[in-house]
Amino acid sequence: MTSREQPWRKQLGDSKERLARDHLERQGLQLVAHNVRCKRGELDLVMRDGDTLAFIEVRYRASGRFGGAAASVDPRKQARIAAAAAYYLQRHPTELPCRFDVVAVDAVGKITWIRHAFAAQA
């Protein structure tokens, strides 16, 4: 069993996603979908922020070493998220503008919400 398959890892990730979702809902966002999976990637949260559809990556890191949670959304991860968003939009077309956000959660539960964290590469 690899570390990615360990049940505690999924439980930890689920709890941090719920923490992020609750925070964003308190800010007025509305949940549209969560844990959307396809071959090329996964979307943690899809939420509506007014007239914008936000694809939100939730990242948790127990320490700030190596740049912390937000820094872990590197160009490769961004491409996977963008591919998953394209998959989602094929199945759920919208006229709304879309953006990519990152919610970073640290070991003490501090939440940092980065709107427009990156743009999809053409």
TrEMBL record:
GO molecular-function term, one example from the UniProt record: nucleic acid binding
Record's protein name: UPF0102 protein CKO40_17665
Gene3D superfamilies found in the cross-reference section: 3.40.1350.10
InterPro entries assigned: Restrct_endonuc-II-like, tRNA_endonuc-like_dom_sf, UPF0102_YraN-like
Family label: Belongs to the UPF0102 family.
Domain of life: Bacteria
Coiled coil: none
